[in-house]
Each structure stands twice: as structure tokens, then as C-alpha cells.
Design a protein that fits this description.
single chain; 463 residues; alpha/beta; MgtE N-terminal fold; CBS-domain; Tetracycline Repressor, domain 2; 4-stranded mixed sheet; 3-stranded mixed sheet; transmembrane; CBS domain
Length: 463
């Protein structure tokens, strides 16, 4: 069976299961719902949930156990999971939130409306609510916002036997913890060391944790940025790092996987903003009002900018009428400038996000981009000049279109390099605003270069 046939078979099965699940939800048959969920192929749960729509997803979460509902919600995009929670009564939503890791709780509570978030917190278990409130104090792109509070920490004066007895007594509580390390603290909660579970289990029962611990482990402050965390995890192959407050007290652990996911989400949001999704996130199950706000408003602005760029063309109507070949080259020159600018823009946004450059580095960035833009401009300009000459048999036309393309390529590249830094300096999101402004300017400059140049050398073009 080919891969295409396998994919078609899985798709058909998923659609059938989604239909059966929808019917079971409407019948409010919890046992049937559970049996259908068990039939869903690995990795296909988000697809099945998408078929249910927001109302169906909300009703499903009310029929199944809280821990299973928590796992399912974490399969959905954050905005969609938040919408599902907002559609439930606060008691049921709180019960589901109680079953989630602390960092996921905080993310979803931050994504729902503030009044609903407060309702959920009041209904959650006190210990869970306290952890969630503490995490909500931190920005989501910091160690404090990404950390989990499900970790193991013991006073360094305890013995191996003390810890093992505690692990056995609280096995039910600890079963969902990602336990590779055990942290040691002093009486004030200050981080003192770390030890591997393997070393603990292979040690004699009466040995003190202080004798086993690795002292002064690498730790991060709660306000450590996402970029700094990414750098640390690239440098060190750790599963997680302890998070401390200003007094050195252990308050959480940030995991590698959570940092990697946060970096991927940030890249995805930046990409969507470049495409004109102003909210940085959209899925088709979102409310129409939210999708209009994210797309239509921005498209209207882009239309206005495009009208500005196209407004120069009527001024050269007589020139175009005499050299119709110019119509063929207009979109090529404007689009190539935009494409080159987009490449340069992408590099600048990446460097800006990684902390490699700041808005003050605009001139240095332009100087670094200039040599490559000149080479690219000469190459593509020469190729288009050859096309113009061979096609029309006119050397002057070839030189004109080649020169216009070369210059617009340089303009696009330099603008793409510098514009995000300038926008960031005045407090405008460069990922959202750079693309449309760049396209408008490169279109405008492209039209002016070829049409203005054609008007100057018109006698040599019509001979």
C-alpha cells in the first residue's frame, strides 16, 4: 500500500471516528465516548477534535474524566483550549486545570478573560491556585513564566533513607513528575545542590544528601529571558535547570522541552505576523470576529499602501503606450525588490529575536548587507538585461530593465535589513509592520526606476 493510500485510509477513519464521537456526545453517553476515544490512531486526536468544533469540544470535556480532559486540552492550540475552558462552568474548568502541569495552568489562565481566570482560580485546589497565581506574576517569555513547580527538593541535612521513604509515601503525588534530578536546599529554601536519582538509589541509606550533592549547580533567575534560556540549553545538555528568586531560594524548574516549544511558538507567531495575521495566531475554529480583527483590518491597510505604490503608474501613461514591453517588466522588477527585501528582513528579525543585534546597530547591519545586495543586484540585473535585449532586440531596453532591477534589489535588501530595527526603536512590532511597508516601498521604487528611466531614454527605446 502506498503512502498516499495509507494517508487516505487514516483520514477516512478519522472522519468516521469524529462522526461517531459527535453522535456519542449528543447522546451524552460517556462510556461510548471513552470507547471511541480509545480507537483514535496515535497523533490524530487534534484532527478529531477539530472536526467537533468549539461547542462539541466543550461538551466532550464535560463528559470525560478531568485528567483525560486536561491531556486533550493540551493537544489543542492555546487560544482554542482557552475558548473551550471559557465555555464551561467554572467548577468543571477548575477541575480540569487542577490536573495540568503548573506552567500549562498559568498559560491558559493568562489566555482567558481576566474575570473568568479569577473564577477558575477560586474553584481550583488551594495549592494549585497558589502556584498558578505565582507563575502569573512573571512574563511568559521568562524562566518564571516557563517554569514548573512540580519538582523534588529536600533539605540537604536529610539522609538517603529519608528521601526514599518520602518518595514511597507520596508515590501517587509524584507519579506525574519528570524526575531526573533532586534538588537540595537549606532551611531557608536556598538552593544548595543537585543530585541524580541514580546516585540516590545506589547510595547507603544513612548517607546525608550533603555528601552526595553537586554543589553550586547552574541555575537561572526567574526573570531570565527566553533567549538566554535557549542559549544555556544549547550550551549544556541538561534536562532542566533550577529557577531561583532574588534571594537564591528555589522556586521552580524550567525544562528544555518547554524552552524549545516557546522558541518554536515565537517563531511561528513572527511568521504569521509577516503574513499579515496581526494577532500572531489564528485557527479556523476561532470566532469570526477575532479572525476579522486579525486579518481584514490589516488587509485594508495593505490595500491603501498598494494604492499609493500604484499611483505613480498613470503619470507615465504616454511612455507605457509607446513602449508596451515595459508592462512585462514592471511586476518582475517590483516583485524581485520585495523578494530580496523579504530575505534580508527575515535575517534581521532572526538576529533581533536572538539578541544578536539591537535597534542601535542599524548602520552596522546595513554595511554588512551592502556587499551581498550589490552582488545579487548585479547578477539578477545582468540576467534580466539579457532577456530584454534578446527579446526586443534593443540594447537600451536591456540596460534599462537590468539597471532598474539591480538598483531595486539593493534598495529592497538594505530596507529589509534596517527597517525592523527602526520600527523596533520607535516601539512598533517589526514582525507585523515591516512586510507591508517594505513591499510598498520596493513597488514604488521599482515603478519609478523603470518608468522614470524609460522616459529619460525614450528616443532610444522607440527607434
Amino acid at each position: 500500500m502506498s503512502d498516499l493510500q495509507k494517508n487516505n485510509e487514516i483520514t477516512t477513519k478519522v472522519e468516521q471516528l469524529a462522526k461517531e464521537l459527535q453522535d456519542a456526545i449528543e447522546q451524552k453517553d460517556a462510556d461510548l465516548v471513552t470507547r471511541i476515544l480509545q480507537k483514535i490512531p496515535p497523533g490524530e486526536l487534534p484532527h478529531v477534535l477539530w472536526h467537533l468544533g468549539l461547542e462539541g469540544q466543550t461538551r466532550l470535556m464535560e463528559l470525560i474524566d478531568s485528567d483525560e480532559a486536561a491531556e486533550m486540552l493540551l493537544e489543542l492550540p492555546e487560544s482554542q483550549a482557552a475558548a473551550v475552558l471559557e465555555g464551561m462552568d467554572s467548577f468543571r474548568a477548575a477541575a480540569i486545570l487542577d490536573e495540568m502541569p503548573s506552567n500549562e495552568q498559568a498559560d491558559l489562565l493568562a489566555a482567558v478573560a481576566p474575570e473568568r481566570s479569577e473564577e477558575f482560580l477560586k474553584q481550583m485546589r488551594p495549592a494549585e491556585a497558589e502556584d498558578a497565581r505565582r507563575l502569573l506574576q512573571y512574563r511568559p517569555d521568562t524562566a518564571g513564566g516557563l517554569m514548573i513547580t512540580e519538582y523534588l527538593a529536600y533539605n540537604e541535612s536529610l539522609t538517603v533513607d529519608d528521601v526514599i521513604r518520602d518518595l514511597r509515601l507520596n508515590a501517587e503525588k509524584y507519579k506525574n513528575y519528570d524526575v531526573l534530578y533532586i534538588y537540595t536546599i537549606n532551611g531557608d529554601g536556598v538552593l544548595k545542590g543537585v543530585l541524580r536519582v541514580r546516585d540516590l538509589l545506589l547510595s547507603v541509606p544513612d548517607r546525608s544528601l550533603a555528601d552526595l550533592e553537586i554543589c553550586n549547580p547552574i541555575s537561572v533567575h526567574a526573570e531570565t529571558s527566553l533567549d538566554d534560556l535557549d542559549h544555556l540549553f544549547r550550551k549544556y545538555r541538561f534536562f532542566g535547570l533550577p529557577v531561583v528568586d532574588s534571594a537564591g531560594r528555589l522556586i521552580g524548574m524550567v525544562r528544555r522541552q518547554d524552552v524549545e516549544e516557546a522558541m518554536a511558538e515565537r517563531a511561528s507567531r513572527s511568521f504569521l505576523k509577516l503574513l499579515g495575521i496581526s494577532g500572531g495566531e489564528e485557527i479556523r475554529s476561532m470566532a469570526l470576529k477575532e479572525r476579522i480583527k486579525g486579518r481584514t483590518v490589516w488587509l485594508s491597510i495593505i490595500l491603501f499602501l498598494d494604492l499609493i505604490a500604484a499611483s505613480v503608474i498613470p503619470f507615465f501613461e504616454s511612455t507605457i503606450a509607446q513602449v508596451l514591453a515595459l508592462v512585462f517588466f514592471l511586476p518582475i522588477i517590483s516583485d524581485m525588490g520585495g523578494n530580496t527585501g523579504s530575505q534580508s528582513l527575515g535575517v534581521t528579525l532572526r538576529e533581533l529575536a536572538a539578541g544578536l543585534i539591537t535597534p542601535r546597530d542599524a548602520w552596522r547591519v546595513v554595511k554588512a548587507e551592502l556587499p551581498l545586495s550589490l552582488v545579487n543586484g548585479l547578477v539578477v540585473g545582468f540576467l534580466l538585461a539579457a532577456v530584454g535585449w534578446i527579446w526586443q532586440g534593443n540594447v537600451c531596453l536591456g540596460v534599462l530593465v537590468g539597471s532598474a532591477l539591480a538598483l531595486n534589489t539593493v534598495v529592497g535588501a538594505l530596507l529589509g535589513a534596517a527597517m525592523p530595527l527602526g520600527l523596533a526603536r520607535i516601539g512598533i512590532d517589526p514582525a507585523l509592520a515591516s512586510g507591508p511597508i517594505l513591499t510598498t516601498i520596493t513597488d514604488l521604487s521599482g515603478f519609478l526606476l523603470i518608468l522614470g528611466g524609460a522616459q529619460l531614454v525614450l528616443p532610444w527605446l522607440v527607434t
